């Protein structure tokens, strides 16, 4: 999940604060970001804002899989998003922004630009 | 616009009006219905259910329709055909078309004493109420007539606690429907219920009590005391019901000069048109080409014919299937086709088993290839298949079809052999072809077929055939929960239970694929919780919970949560009320009183939840589980403690039940209520399990719900002691938790159950599956291991850490959550996005 183009990384929290198959919300710059860990240790970061409902709730969705895609479902109306691309798998044309995310020295970091 | 007058609002009249109104899309007809009874149409076929506790409201068939002027208690006394007006006591109604749907009246044989007090007929709800009222405090009853209606009446008297006799003139019971051997088998069943049967006997006279009170009666009639029979014997009876047959109500038509049938009934052709082309007759009052039909299905068929004709159609009455299947006094009785073998050269195949007390007869054509009819007593499970096969080849070898345990009917082989034109649902005249078409057009389950074709919506006896048709049409009713499991919830429950699986990971690795989703994870979380796996947010279980369960609160549209403390039974002290008020004020929460007698506090941010709980827990509150697929509330009315009508302590029971079942995780939410008397102020019959006090104990109702498809709960058991009540509810809930589908409320669960309420009763009361001990033990474990999830959270710092706004800025609340004030309370700030209310004036509310 590293991104060599990202120059500025913001340290978020110790990596164990992101529990397997759950999300946390973080403030990165002015943006609300939802960070998830999948069962195999993969880390993903997307916008915390549910683009359909307009509320900042994505970090509280259920993490799972659809086919090969790691997913999170909006807790409000259950639309499912591909964590890798941010694409909504239930509503064509809807997507959330993704962010680079990595672990350095036991700390989760999100690319901030 | 033309004016249609319908005379009568019975079942057929009502069906006719519905059929016409639904098809009259261009508004060709204005409809006036003139009815004799003071009640709108009700289900007369199920009339006897009144004595099982089914209310008049539940029997009602009335549907509101602004396009129909329904005038109750205003019978037509005369029809003036010259002026084309129907005349009632209230006025005159001009018509362009008039439809008689006046039904029948009970035939009362001309014997002495038929007008005594305590002698009744059995036709209307008013009759039944009068019987019930008169039977109070009396001990003996007799029914004149041992046909279908007579046996229903006998059961009614039995249920009213009377020692009951049945007197039938013919040599056997139900002479019209069953043959001699079938009648004999039926008699054995009936006598076993302590009903005394007198066949081949007439009633010579009905005698009054001769105790001198004759002259004191206000109406100068004496009260009935008993019957003198044609063999000279005497039966004592305080209540007599005459059920000796029915006669068509053709008096008004006759007086108007319309032609009538030789044996009565308004004579109509196959279009159901009388000798006056503007006047029609349908149902029991009509004699189609001279023949009257005393069943509802032919009446419905006539209703459809006339509705079609009035809108320019050419429908004709197709003739009627006089087949019947009933449960009388708990005995299945069915007859179909040429039950008495009147066709020339026909052959009988009979089967009698005194051990299981089953009698069955098939009538075959002379070459034994075509089924003509038959009689079934004791076990009528083969009825749907056999009835639909009449006129066609046998759906299997005769003995295999008749012997009940051969399994010959259940396999679906029978229905596959039916011709497409065979009627599967005779109540609504739906053929096999129509049902198969509906399946091909996308109906994949029984409710869809019901909605689409009306099949199975009346007596329901064809529902097993609908299932078979679905099966043989290749509809795979997939039970897979989602893409990660091929199992149904019930199967997963058994896997988890039997194999002792404790984690989702183990379950999905060994029995599924992928990593789960928002469907299977909460379902498995609920199963694990039901099986007593402790705090729902420990370890891996936390990751399974839907956001509501994860945050122990209900998410709202802006991402805030609402908090509902438990208020058992809706009973709360002033001090606790004040605490709720203070908490709401201090955290700036919007408050609303819920339908379940709780107080809901809205607008709490994630990081505020533990602080709110801390305050509530310290004041003695606990989680109300409003967020869970779990027991929600047990509502109550104030009961005998305060109410002058109350007969039991409904609040006390509601509190006890709510505390017993609190926190119980289930396939869906569970609601309950307890009413302290039959006035039912707690609305218990709209609940998954509802309890209504009686002067002897408690009546338990199951399977009700409000919501999208409201449904009244059905009576499960009457006059229970508190101990029995709790035992039955324990088992009911545990059986539901074990076997229901995901998100299936109890109503749908019972409806989908093979055998329905009877099966449920057998499982819970008679332990027919031998699982009651397990169910009892499971509930005992639940009651013992309950802990308050809010308290468990606020007492554990590790658990508290989940309740933060931002993992890297825990002191910053979500800046996107803002409120504005509406009617003095905070609500989510919508700004420009607030929905516009159309057509409603804005009302100034004074603060």
UniProtKB/TrEMBL annotation, chain A:
Residue span(s) of domain Rieske: 10-110
CDD domains recorded: Rieske_NirD
SUPFAM superfamilies: ISP domain (SSF50022)
One Pfam family in the UniProt entry: Rieske_2
InterPro entries with a match to the protein in the record: NirD, Rieske-like_NirD, Rieske_2Fe-2S, Rieske_2Fe-2S_sf
Alphabetically ordered keywords of this record: 2Fe-2S, Iron, Iron-sulfur, Metal-binding, Nitrate assimilation, Oxidoreductase
PROSITE patterns in alphabetical order: NIRD, RIESKE
Domain of life: Bacteria
NCBIfam families, sorted: nirD_assim_sml
Protein name: Nitrite reductase small subunit NirD
Organism of this sequence: Phytohabitans maris
TrEMBL record, chain B:
Top EC group: oxidoreductase
Cofactor needs: siroheme; FAD; [4Fe-4S] cluster; [2Fe-2S] cluster
Pathway noted in the entry: Nitrogen metabolism; nitrate reduction (assimilation)
Domain Nitrite/sulphite reductase 4Fe-4S: 628-764
NCBIfam families assigned to the protein according to its UniProt record, in alphabetical order: nitri_red_nirB (TIGR02374), PRK14989.1 (NF011565)
Known role: Catalyzes the reduction of sulfite to sulfide, a step in the biosynthesis of sulfur-containing amino acids and cofactors.
Name of the molecule in the record: assimilatory sulfite reductase (ferredoxin)
UniProt organism field: Phytohabitans maris
């Amino acid at each position: 999940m590293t991104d060599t183009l990202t120059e500025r990384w913001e340290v978020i929290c110790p990596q164990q604060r992101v529990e397997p198959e759950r999300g946390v919300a973080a403030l990165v710059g002015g943006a609300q970001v939802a960070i998830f860990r999948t069962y195999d240790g993969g880390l993903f970061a997307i916008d915390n804002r549910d683009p359909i409902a307009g509320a900042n709730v994505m970090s509280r969705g259920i993490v799972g899989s659809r086919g090969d895609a790691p997913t999170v479902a909006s807790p409000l109306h259950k639309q499912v998003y591909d964590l890798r691309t941010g694409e909504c798998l239930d509503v064509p044309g809807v997507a959330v922004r993704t962010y680079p995310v990595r672990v350095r020295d036991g700390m989760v970091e999100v690319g901030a630009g | 616009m033309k004016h249609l007058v319908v005379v009568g609002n019975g079942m057929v009249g009502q069906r006719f009006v519905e059929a016409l109104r639904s098809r009259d899309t261009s508004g060709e007809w204005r409809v006036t219905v003139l009815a004799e009874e003071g009640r709108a149409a009700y289900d007369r076929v199920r009339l006897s259910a009144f004595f099982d506790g089914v209310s008049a409201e539940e029997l009602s068939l009335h549907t509101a329709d602004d396009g129909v002027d329904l005038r109750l208690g205003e019978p037509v006394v005369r029809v003036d055909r010259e002026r084309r007006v129907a005349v009632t006591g209230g006025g005159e109604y001009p018509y362009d078309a008039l439809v008689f749907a006046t039904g029948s009246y009970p035939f009362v044989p001309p014997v002495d004493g038929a007008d005594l007090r305590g002698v009744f007929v059995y036709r209307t709800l008013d009759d039944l109420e009068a019987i019930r009222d008169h039977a109070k405090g009396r001990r003996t009853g007799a029914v004149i007539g041992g046909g279908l209606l007579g046996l229903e009446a006998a059961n009614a008297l039995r249920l009213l606690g009377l020692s009951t006799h049945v007197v039938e003139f013919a040599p056997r019971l139900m002479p019209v429907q069953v043959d001699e051997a079938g009648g004999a088998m039926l008699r054995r069943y009936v006598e076993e219920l302590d009903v005394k049967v007198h066949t081949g006997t007439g009633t010579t006279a009905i005698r009054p009590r001769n105790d001198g009170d004759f002259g004191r009666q206000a109406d100068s009639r004496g009260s009935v005391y008993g019957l003198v029979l044609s063999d000279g014997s005497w039966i004592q009876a305080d209540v007599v019901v005459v059920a000796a047959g029915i006669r068509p109500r053709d008096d008004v038509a006759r007086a108007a000069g319309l032609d009538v049938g030789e044996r009565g009934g308004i004579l109509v052709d196959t279009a159901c048109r009388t000798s006056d082309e503007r006047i029609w007759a349908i149902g029991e009052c009509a004699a189609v080409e001279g023949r009257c039909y005393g069943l509802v299905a032919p009446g419905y068929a006539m209703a459809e014919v006339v509705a079609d004709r009035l809108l320019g159609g050419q429908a004709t009455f197709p003739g009627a299937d006089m087949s019947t299947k009933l449960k009388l006094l708990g005995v299945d009785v069915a007859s179909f086709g040429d039950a008495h073998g009147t066709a020339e050269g026909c052959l009988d195949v009979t089967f009698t088993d005194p051990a299981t007390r089953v009698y069955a007869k098939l009538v075959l054509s002379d070459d034994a290839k075509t089924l003509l009819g038959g009689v079934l007593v004791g076990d009528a499970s083969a009825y749907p298949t056999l009835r639909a096969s009449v006129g066609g080849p046998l759906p299997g070898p005769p003995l295999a079809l008749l012997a009940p345990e051969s399994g010959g009917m259940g396999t679906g082989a029978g229905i596959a052999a039916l011709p497409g034109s065979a009627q599967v649902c005779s109540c609504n005249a739906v053929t096999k072809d129509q049902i198969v078409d509906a399946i091909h057009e996308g109906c994949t389950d029984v409710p869809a077929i019901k909605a689409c074709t009306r099949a199975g919506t009346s007596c329901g006896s064809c529902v097993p055939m609908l299932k078979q048709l679905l099966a043989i049409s290749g509809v795979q009713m997939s039970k897979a929960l989602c893409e990660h499991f091929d199992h149904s919830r019930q199967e997963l429950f058994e896997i988890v239970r039997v194999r002792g699986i404790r984690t989702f990971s183990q379950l999905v690795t060994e029995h599924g694929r992928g990593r789960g989703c928002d469907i299977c994870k909460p379902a498995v979380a609920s199963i694990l919780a039901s099986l007593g796996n402790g705090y729902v947010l420990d370890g891996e279980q936390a990751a399974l919970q839907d956001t509501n369960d994860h945050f122990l609160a209900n998410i709202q549209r802006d991402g805030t949560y609402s908090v509902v403390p438990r208020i058992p039974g809706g009973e709360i002290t002033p001090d606790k009320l004040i605490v709720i008020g203070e908490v709401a004020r201090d955290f700036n929460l919007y408050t609303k009183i819920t339908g379940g007698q709780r107080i809901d506090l809205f607008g709490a941010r994630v990081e505020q939840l533990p602080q709110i709980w801390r305050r509530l827990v310290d004041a003695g509150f606990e989680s109300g589980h409003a967020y869970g697929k779990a027991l929600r509330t047990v509502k109550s009315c104030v009961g005998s403690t305060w109410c002058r009508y109350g007969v039991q302590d409904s609040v006390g029971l509601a509190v006890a039940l709510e505390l017993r079942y609190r926190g119980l995780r289930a396939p869906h939410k569970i609601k309950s209520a307890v009413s302290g008397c039959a006035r039912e102020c707690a609305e218990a019959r709209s609940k998954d399990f509802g309890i209504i006090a009686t002067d002897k104990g408690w009546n338990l109702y199951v399977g009700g719900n409000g919501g999208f498809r409201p449904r009244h709960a059905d009576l499960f058991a009457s006059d229970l002691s508190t101990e029995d009540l709790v035992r039955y509810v324990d088992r009911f809930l545990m059986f539901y938790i074990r076997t229901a589908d995901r998100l299936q409320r109890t109503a749908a669960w019972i409806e989908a159950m093979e055998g329905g309420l009877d099966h449920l009763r057998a499982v819970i009361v008679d332990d027919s599956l031998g699982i009651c001990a397990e169910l009892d033990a499971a509930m005992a474990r639940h009651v013992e291991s309950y802990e308050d999830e809010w308290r468990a959270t606020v007492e554990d710092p590790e658990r508290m850490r989940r309740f933060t706004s931002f993992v890297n800025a825990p002191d910053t609340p979500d800046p996107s959550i803002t409120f504005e004030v509406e009617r003095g309370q905070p609500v989510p700030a919508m700004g420009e996005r607030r929905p516009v209310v159309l057509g409603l004036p804005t009302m100034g509310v004074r603060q």
